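Suppose you are handed a protein chain with no further information: no name, no annotation, nothing but its sequence. What can you learn? This example shows the usual starting point.
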Amino acid sequence: MKELQKYLQKYKNLTPPEASKKKVLIDAIRSECGITLTENDIALIGGGARLSCHPTVRSEIAQCAPRVLGVLHGEYGVHLAYLR
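A reasonable first move is to predict its three-dimensional structure. Written in structure tokens, the prediction is:
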């Protein structure tokens, strides 16, 4: 029984793959645009990301979107088709 508990303990803190993509996206937006978002502000839909924040923040991020997508692809290996 103790072996089973030890084995299951490894899997206790697993997160879904989209959580790691969100964290990488937040880091890329912070480094390129200087804007800090939370994980609740980002929804990964299909092959892209939809932002649910203030419209002025979204337009600011839209101006930086090519650089953010380039950083995601180059440094992190994350491929997103769009950032809206």
